[in-house]
Specification:
The protein contains 16 helices and no strands. By secondary structure, the protein is an all-alpha fold. It binds a DNA duplex through helix 3, helix 6 and helix 10. Keywords: DNA-binding, Nucleus, Repeat, Transcription, Transcription regulation.
Length: about 350
DNA sequence: AAAATATCCAACCGCTGTAGA
DNA sequence: TTCTACAGCGGTTGGATATTT
C-alpha cells in the first residue's frame, strides 16, 4: 500500500466518459492484431486518448467477443445468488463461473436486482412484504425465489460459512478445500451454462476460465482473441498523433450510450443464440465475422462486412501494412464504418479527419 | 405532453497483490 | 530485500433511459 505508485495515467489530455464507436473500433482493431499484453502501452500504440486502465475496462466489460448480453436467465440468476452466498462480493470469481458475464455486469445485476430480491424474500420470512417498486422489469421478478431445491434457501443460507450476504465483510474462508466442501453441498442449476460442478470448482479455485488455454503472458481470463494473436510487431507501431477534431466530430452523435441502447435492443437476437459456442471459435474466420457483426449491430453500424470490402477496393481503403491483410474485416470496417454509420461523421470534413488517422494498425 | 422520479449500467476511483528490477 | 510499476478487483458515481404522476 505505502509503496509509491504512480497514478495509472496522467489524466492530462485523455478522453474520459463514454466511448465512441471510433474508439471502440480502434481498440478492437488493435487488440485483434496485437493483443493486450501491455495495457499501459496499448492506448498510445493504438492511437487512443485513453488510459490503459480505461481501455482494459472497456475491452473486458463491453468489447470482448465472448460476452453474453441481455438479461440474465433464471438459471444464471440462481447461480449468481448461490455463488454470492458462498463467495460474497468476489465478483471476479463469480464471473468465472458465469461464462460470458463480466464481474461488472454481475455486480450490477446483483446490486440492482438480486440483492433486493434476496433481501425481500428474507424479509418475507420475518414479516413478509417487500416494498413494491415503481419500475418492474422482466428481471425484477416480484415473486419470491422459486426455490427449485427446497434445501437451498438462498437467503438464509444454512451453510457453515459465515454469512456473506452483506458483501465485503463476509470475507469468508476462501481456501480451496473449504470452498470445495461448500460447493459440494450446493446444487447449482447450470442447465444451460455449459459446464459442470467440477468445472465450477476448477474455475473458482483457480480463478481463471477453464475453457481458455492460458497464454504465457496474460492470464487470458477474458477469453479474448488476442490470446491467439501474435504481438511480435507491437513495438513496431508508429507513434500516432490524434486529430483532436475527430473526437468532437464523433461526439456529435451516438456515442457509447446510444450504442449501448442499440445493444440492448439487439441483445437477444444478436447474442442470445449460441454466443458461447460461437465465442469458442472466435479465432477462426467465422467467429471473427459473427463477432464483428454483433459488434457492428451494437454500435449501430451494422452492415455486411462485404460491403466494406467492396466499398474500399482501393489499397488506401483497406491496406494494412503491418498485417498485409486486405481482407481484415476490422480494418476494412474501421475505414468505412464510422463515416458511413455516424451521420455526424460524413462528408469531406469527416473524410479529412479520418484520413489523418493512421489506420495502419 | 411535460415534469418528476426511479432504475440501469458503463465507467471511474482507489486499493491490493504480484512480478520484476 | 526493497522499491516500482503493472494488472486486476471491488466499490461508487453519474449520465441515460424508462416509468409514473
Amino acid at each position: 500500500m505505502g509503496k509509491g505508485r504512480a497514478p495509472c495515467c496522467a489524466k492530462v489530455g485523455l478522453n474520459r466518459g463514454s466511448w465512441t464507436p471510433e474508439e471502440d473500433m480502434r481498440l478492437i482493431a488493435y487488440i485483434q492484431k496485437f493483443g493486450h499484453a501491455n495495457w499501459r502501452a496499448l492506448p498510445k500504440q493504438a492511437g487512443l486518448l485513453r488510459c490503459g486502465k480505461s481501455c482494459r475496462l472497456r475491452w473486458i466489460n463491453y468489447l470482448r467477443p465472448d460476452l453474453k448480453r441481455g438479461n440474465f436467465t433464471v438459471e444464471e440468476e440462481e447461480t449468481l445468488i448461490k455463488l454470492h452466498n458462498m463467495l460474497g462480493n468476489k465478483w471476479s470469481k463469480i464471473a468465472a463461473c458465469l461464462p460470458g458475464r463480466t464481474d461488472n455486469e454481475i455486480k450490477n445485476v446483483w446490486n440492482t436486482h438480486l440483492k433486493k430480491r434476496v433481501a425481500a424474500s428474507a424479509g418475507e420470512q420475518k414479516k413478509g412484504g417487500a416494498k413494491g417498486k415503481k419500475k418492474t422489469t422482466c428481471v425484477d421478478v416480484p415473486a419470491p425465489a422459486p426455490s427449485p431445491s427446497p434445501s437451498s434457501s438462498t437467503t438464509t443460507t444454512t451453510t457453515t460459512t459465515t454469512n456473506c450476504s452483506s458483501g465485503e465483510s463476509g470475507e469468508q474462508s476462501n481456501s480451496s478445500k473449504e470452498l470445495e466442501f461448500e460447493l459440494d453441498k450446493i446444487e447449482i442449476p447450470m442447465l444451460d451454462l455449459g459446464f459442470d460442478l467440477d468445472m465450477l470448482l476448477d474455475t473458482v479455485t483457480n480463478t481463471h476460465c477453464p475453457a481458455i488455454p492460458s497464454a504465457p503472458t496474460s492470464p487470458c481470463s477474458s477469453a479474448s482473441p488476442p490470446c491467439v494473436v501474435d504481438d511480435g510487431a507491437l513495438l513496431d507501431l508508429p507513434e500516432i498523433d490524434i486529430v483532436p477534431e475527430l473526437w468532437s466530430i464523433m461526439d456529435g452523435e451516438g456515442g457509447a450510450g446510444a450504442c449501448a441502447e442499440t445493444a440492448q435492443d439487439n441483445a437477444a437476437p444478436c447474442h442470445g443464440k449460441g454466443t458461447e459456442a460461437r465465442a469458442a471459435t472466435a479465432d477462426d474466420d467465422d467467429g471473427k465475422e459473427w463477432w464483428l457483426e454483433d459488434l457492428e449491430k451494437e454500435l449501430g453500424l451494422w452492415g455486411p462486412i462485404e460491403d466494406y470490402q467492396h466499398q474500399q477496393p482501393d489499397p488506401q481503403g483497406c491496406v494494412d501494412p503491418l498485417s498485409a491483410s486486405v481482407d481484415d474485416p476490422v480494418s476494412c470496417y474501421f475505414q468505412a464504418g464510422p463515416a458511413r454509420a455516424t451521420s455526424a461523421v460524413q462528408g469531406p470534413e469527416a473524410s479529412a479527419v479520418l484520413a489523418n488517422i493512421p489506420m495502419d494498425l
